Amino acid sequence: MHIKRLEIDNFKSFANKTEIPFFSGFTAIAGINGSGKSNIIDSILFTLGLSSSRALRSEGGVADLITTHNSRNEASVKVVFDLDDDIGTELSFARKIRKTPSGYASTYSMNDKTVTLTQIHSELEKYSITPNSYNVIMQGDVLSLVKCSSLEKRKFIDEVAGTADFDRKIETATGELEIVENRVKDSMLVMAGLDETLEKLKEEREVALKYQEIKAQKSELEGQITTVKYFDFKKILEMAHENILRCQKEKKKQEAATPPSPGKSNKKPRLSFKEKQEMQQLESEMEQLNAEKTAIETTLSSGTLSPGELLDKSNRIAEIISALDEKEMRWLELSEIES
Question: How far apart are the first and last CA of the chain?
Fold first, then answer.
């Protein structure tokens, strides 16, 4: 491949758009000093990104590459390559810069499509054109090569042969590999710490599960104990209730067998209307209490209550039995009068 033509517009000494053709083989450009011969080489390096602004003899930076011969604030260069194939395929690269309030803006393109400088370098690398290769020999490079040391000559040969690029890639890959290895080591340390923490969490989990199991067993045993206490308490209350009723009946019999004292009338008192209503109310309340007591006993027998619920139900049973005793005693008194 070879450069077919240059299109330079407002770049350094080229204030007007200029097209410079190159021919296959050797092309020489001659001119007096200061005519802009070096600017042609600079335009190629500028477009292909093969050199810095300092190497392009622009101390003020890239923005100073725009000509000062007019008021335009932008410059562009296009390099067209001939790939030397049978169909005359062309490959073009262009770069455009313009001044901005913050400095300058630069745009690269390849075959008239906007690309990055990295993409341009990747494409040129296919043809052994790299920023570090000696594709362009500048003024003084030959003299420097003659005077340089053996080591520097070897570096020059490596650059020309392209092996230096491989060495740089190997160096870059080695550096990246070292970074990855360090990250792997750090990750291994973190994983070791996580494994240790995981083992501790497993132990704590086992302890927590054992605690839950023991707690459930404790609750179950407490429920069984409460149930047993309830039935024992219920039995005692029922026996006390029967004893009270038996004693009440015996007392009534003794009172009935005892003759009335002299001067007292043998006429039995009769219940008032209010007392009859009280008896009916007592019967209704005792019926309700017995129904509630039966319902609670059925719930207690199901074995589905917690220890706290069992205790509450047991206390309520005790209250019901006590209330039944009082109401039955009062009802017996009224029934004796009625009979």
Answer: 137
